[in-house]
């Protein structure tokens, strides 16, 4: 039965075009547990390594080494036997000329018979104290073993981030940022082996705002007692610079003592659910929790030394069972991330 589902799924991919699936299906879905639980709203939030995917310009604000591994996705697949993970590495060695990072996004299912990988090289630089720009060179590779089929493409994304001057509200420190990123700015295609014609590779444009609020309360062991974060994104999808579909996403995070985080988000996919006849995508609620250990504040031996664990789950409260391949026992999707950062 599993083999039959895989065959039917691959035939479905043939009918809609592999490039279209790659863009709308996997590589335009949220990755990294924290961002999943914030409803896929992160374009204006460059406060950690997760920004590699959503706004590479945010890397210019980070001056420490960091690595992250995330298992799982904020996307529901019709085939349960799949593997999806994301890896990113931040390298500020050349911060006098800019910040570099590397990332890998992977999807496979049915014992690696079907594989998708997205390799990315990121670069960011501060233009001024409040303005930074970034770019990412992206290499996409597809491999379907039973069909002896492969596909690949290069594309480039450009991003920008602006931080408003710090605004002091009586008793509260507020920081607001806006950002945007254009994926596949030169409108490249996906090229295949076996004499299959190239397919259009979809584009996306993200614009987002983040705003954090930190009350001026007495610190506890040098830790900020509470911090509130609000993020919102507008994500537009299309091809040939014609964006016909879009998502309004938002998320909220409450941070306690810089250690415990509670998150809620909503990714509004109402405009995307009819892209594929087999897709059960709907507006979906996200929940998450995170635990951080800021050793640099607890031990005072480093400028930054922190390890974080994040968990997220997606509540698919509306499933259209009339769609092909969709059953009523689709599980709640979960994701786990581990992140480590150090500034020597």
Task: Describe the structure in your own words.
There is one protein chain. The chain is mainly β and 344 residues long. It has a single domain, classed as Beta Barrel (Porin), CATH 2.40.160. The protein is 11% helix and 51% strand. The protein has five helices and 17 strands. A hairpin with a 4-residue loop joins strand 3 and strand 4 (114-126). Mean pLDDT is 81; it is low at 13-25 and 271-280.
In short:
This protein is mainly beta. 11% of the residues lie in helices and 51% in strands.
List the SSEs and their pairings:
Blueprint: H1 2-16, H2 18-26, H3 33-37, H4 51-54, E1 65-71, E2 82-91, E3 99-109, E4 114-126, E5 131-144, E6 149-163, E7 167-169, E8 172-183, E9 189-192, E10 199-200, E11 203-215, E12 226-239, E13 242-256, E14 260-267, E15 284-294, H5 295-298, E16 304-315, E17 333-343
The succession of helices and strands, N to C, reads HHHHEEEEEEEEEEEEEEEHEE
- Overall pLDDT level: 81
User: Overall 3D geometry?
Assistant: globular
Largest sheet: 14 strands, antiparallel, barrel
Query: What is the gyration radius calculated from CA atoms?
Result: 20 Å
List the domain count as a whole number: 1
Q: What is the helix content? A: 10-25%
User: So, CATH architecture?
Assistant: Beta Barrel
What CATH calls the topology is: Porin
Beta content comes to over 45%
Overall CATH class: Mainly Beta
Give the count of helical stretches: 5
Counting helices, strands and paired strands, the structural category is: mainly beta
How far apart, in Å, are the first and last alpha carbons?
A: 53 Å
Q: What is the tally of beta strands?
A: 17
| Low-pLDDT runs | 13-25, 271-280
* Neighbour order of strands in the largest sheet: 1-2-3-4-5-6-8-11-12-13-14-15-16-17
């Amino acid at each position: 039965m599993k083999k039959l589902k895989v065959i039917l799924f691959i035939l479905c991919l043939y009918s809609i075009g592999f490039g279209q699936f790659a863009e709308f299906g996997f590589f335009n879905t949220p990755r990294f547990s924290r961002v999943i639980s914030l409803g896929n709203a992160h374009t204006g939030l460059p406060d950690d390594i997760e920004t590699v995917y959503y706004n590479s310009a945010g890397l210019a604000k980070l001056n420490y080494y960091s690595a992250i591994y995330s298992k799982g996705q904020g996307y529901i697949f019709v085939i349960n036997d799949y593997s999806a993970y994301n890896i990113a590495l931040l390298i500020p060695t050349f911060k006098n000329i800019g910040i570099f990072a590397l990332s890998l996004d992977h999807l496979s299912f049915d014992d690696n018979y079907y594989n998708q990988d997205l390799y990315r090289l990121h670069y960011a630089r501060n233009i001024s104290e409040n303005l930074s720009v970034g770019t990412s060179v992206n290499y996409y590779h597809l491999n379907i073993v039973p069909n002896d089929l492969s596909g690949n493409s290069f594309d480039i994304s450009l991003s920008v981030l602006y931080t408003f001057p710090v605004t002091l509200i009586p008793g509260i420190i507020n920081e607001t940022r806006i950002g945007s990123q254009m994926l596949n700015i030169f409108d490249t295609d996906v090229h295949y082996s076996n004499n299959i014609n190239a397919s259009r590779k979809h584009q996306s444009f993200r614009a987002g705002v983040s705003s954090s609020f930190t009350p001026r309360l007495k610190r506890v062991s040098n830790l900020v007692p509470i911090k509130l974060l609000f993020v919102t994104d507008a994500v537009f999808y299309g091809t040939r610079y014609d964006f016909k579909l879009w998502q309004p996403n938002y998320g909220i995070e409450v941070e306690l003592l810089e250690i415990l985080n509670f998150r809620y988000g909503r990714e509004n996919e109402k405009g995307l659910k009819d892209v594929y006849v087999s897709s059960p995508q709907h507006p979906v609620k996200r929940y998450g929790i995170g635990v951080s250990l800021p050793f640099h504040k607890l031990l005072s031996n480093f400028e930054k030394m922190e390890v974080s664990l994040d968990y997220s789950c997606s509540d698919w409260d509306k499933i259209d069972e009339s769609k092909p391949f969709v059953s009523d026992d689709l599980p709640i999707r979960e994701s786990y991330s581990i992140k480590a950062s150090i500034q020597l």
